[in-house]
Specification:
The structure is a single chain. The N and C termini lie far apart (48 Å). With 372 residues, the chain is an alpha/beta fold. The chain has 2 domains: 285 residues, NADP-dependent oxidoreductase domain (TIM Barrel, Alpha-Beta Barrel), CATH 3.20.20; 63 residues, no CATH class. An 8-stranded parallel beta barrel has the order 3-6-7-8-9-10-11-12, surrounded by 7 helices. It has a two-stranded antiparallel sheet with strand order 1-2. The chain has a two-stranded antiparallel ribbon with strand order 4-5. Helix 6 runs parallel beside helix 7, helix 8 packs antiparallel against helix 11 and helix 12 packs across helix 15. 42% of the residues lie in helices and 15% in strands.
């Protein structure tokens, strides 16, 4: 494990962070025993950054994380959680939610407290509720140590938010496919110049980069240094000097062990020109083969009509990555389960919730016509 220093803070962090949005599940709920075992093993192995949020796992993630951090583990980690801005309807709601989170997490303070899923429109809403005075008060009371925000929008909105408050960290989506999307690489550079540490989410694009098509596998195999697709995806990010932590949503023991091995490095490496060229080739291949590039975050769920949006999108993309791929057989099962796109009434609830700003309704229609 190698460690980084967040600028303008006293926080030193492991480059690998444990993201608690995709904890192991059993019978539709978090497998609490296994999740706690994994989180504690990660900490015992050198991971010092734990990330959760109010809505993860239907509100259960913070509770399980709180239990995992008992018995002396809380003192070993940087704990980050997020204010669900969409639940704020008046200024007082913010402190009430924070107090609830402190109770669920069984702690008296949050190290990084993030305004969750900020975008241009949400910034204006939070300004209306005077979010700055709330953060100032929470800091003064010692309930949070450092203010931060997570982000899903474009570069212009990112810069507006970045310059609106004295943030100490920003959490952004970045991976091989997103260098020109969301905050963009330029946004990451601007955060670095401003002295704001960058935490990365969706480094594997919802798992898409972990199971590449054969031509990407072949491209990786031709390179002199042999690495797994997962390691290549992480390497793209941990060579960036502005990046202080990369979150990985580890869902099983095997993923945890693999991630710990990948981050078993003495220091922060740099990309050479051949590696940069390889990433360009990989990105072009993915873009040509995939349609939705859904990350499976499930913010669009539950659909009021029961449409299995992330299931449809991710399985469609995965099918298209295969040689002569087809999703017809998989989609036939979705139809049989009465969770297919024909049930969509175009209410728009999913598109309003999607942090990727995907044209979900159009994609559902197109996939339905192709695969029914």
């Amino acid at each position: 494990m190698f460690y980084t220093q967040f600028p303008n803070t006293d926080i030193q962090s492991s480059m690998l962070g444990f993201g608690c949005m995709r904890l192991p599940v059993k019978d539709g709920k978090i497998d609490e025993k296994e999740a706690i075992r994994m989180i504690r093993h990660a900490i015992d192995s050198g991971v010092t950054y734990i990330d959760t949020a109010y809505p993860y796992h239907g509100g259960e993630s913070e509770i399980v994380v709180g239990k995992a951090l008992q018995d002396g583990y809380r003192e070993k980690v940087t704990l980050a959680t997020k204010l669900p801005c969409w639940n704020v309807h008046k200024h007082e709601d913010m402190m009430a939610i924070l107090d609830e989170q402190l109770q669920k997490l069984q702690t008296d303070h949050i190290d990084f407290y993030l305004m969750h899923a900020m975008n241009g429109e949400r910034l204006e809403e939070m300004q209306k509720y005077d979010y700055k005075s709330f953060l100032d008060e929470a800091l003064a009371q010692g309930k949070i140590r450092y203010p931060a925000f997570s982000f899903h929008d474009g570069y212009d909105a990112f810069m507006r938010i970045l310059n609106d408050y004295d943030w100490k960290m920003c959490q952004v989506q970045m991976n091989i496919l997103d260098d020109e999307n969301q905050c963009t690489l330029e946004g990451i550079r601007q955060a670095g110049k401003k002295g704001v540490g960058v935490v990365i989410m969706e480094p594997l694009r919802g798992g898409l980069l972990a199971n590449p098509p054969e031509d990407v596998v072949a491209a990786y195999a031709q390179y002199q240094d042999q690495r797994s697709p997962v390691e290549w995806a992480f390497r793209y990010l941990y060579t960036m000097p502005e990046v202080k932590c990369i979150l990985s949503g580890m869902s099983n023991w095997e993923q945890l062990v693999d991630n710990l091995n990948i981050f078993d490095l003495e220091g922060q490496p740099e990309l050479n020109e051949d590696e940069k060229a390889l990433y360009v080739k990989v990105k072009d291949t993915y873009i040509a083969r995939t349609k939705t590039r859904c990350t499976g975050c499930r913010y669009c769920q539950p659909c009021p009509m029961g449409v299995a949006i992330p299931h449809i999108f991710q399985n469609y993309d995965t099918s298209m990555l295969r040689a002569q791929g087809s999703y017809k057989d998989g989609y036939a099962k979705v139809i049989a389960d009465e969770r297919d796109a024909s049930r969509c009434v175009q209410c728009g609830q999913c598109e309003a919730a999607c942090p990727q700003h995907l044209p979900i309704i159009r994609y559902l229609q197109e996939i339905h016509e192709e695969c029914k």
